[in-house]
Amino acid sequence: MSRSPQSPLPLFPLAVASLPIVGRSETFPVGRILCVGRNYAAHAQEMGASGSEPPFFFMKSTNSLWDIEGAQGRWPYPTGTHDCHHELEIVLAMGPGGNSGDAEVWGLALGLDMTRRDRQAEMKSAGKPWEVGKAFPAAAPTTPITALADLGIAPDPSAVRSALEATELRLMVGSELRQSGSPRQMLCPIPELLCAIRAEFGLQAGDLIFTGTPSGVGPVHPGDGLRGELLTPDGRALIPALRLEVLAAAI
Known about the structure:
Blueprint: E1 18-20, E2 27-29, E3 32-37, H1 41-46, E4 56-60, E5 65-67, E6 74-76, E7 84-86, E8 88-95, E9 104-112, E10 115-116, H2 117-125, H3 131-134, E11 140-142, E12 146-147, H4 148-151, H5 157-164, E13 168-173, E14 176-181, H6 190-201, E15 207-210, E16 218-219, E17 225-231, E18 242-247
Parallel strand pairs: 3-15, 5-11, 6-18
Antiparallel strand pairs: 1-2, 3-4, 7-10, 7-16, 8-9, 8-15, 9-12, 13-14, 13-17, 17-18
């Protein structure tokens, strides 16, 4: 039997993960979720490190992506853990890179690197990879993407760094301020971070880059309400706030 000259078709359809874009009808397709660990010295220290080591990288699958807007701000407490922690982060959304062909920063969002801390610690103590602590379903709740063009920020990494270093990242759990920090405190600022990821993994349009979390990470419980903000010096939100209600664990 001769082979058809037509392009082969996939065996079954596979949905593309995506996030809404603020003020636009299109969605942002997500291919990879790349995360940087210990990019704020104070957080590295609260996790038992010195705070002087270089940041490192890990990934979450698109199965971990959780569209906060699509879920109407409701997030299910994960199964398989009794100690799930919040880690608020600025997220860079990478888009096509114009004439260079390389990906460049297209937009910004806020995300939570939710961590099953007990499972992570268990794997660490055994010297095993700790994806079960980081890459479980819905482990990356993320707000809609705000385009840099709509913020008046150029896609140049230095321009993104300059715009972000004037802001403050804050997370409230109920009425308690849990996390507060500035991107000025990043051990690996945006330009260097993008260069390091490019060297290790390449950069692709559709990448989401979680840029690290300030100190103050801690547990969440069913019934908690979380509010994350990226604030300008005059107290204005640079991008829409992250609002999340933690639901009871699925049975």
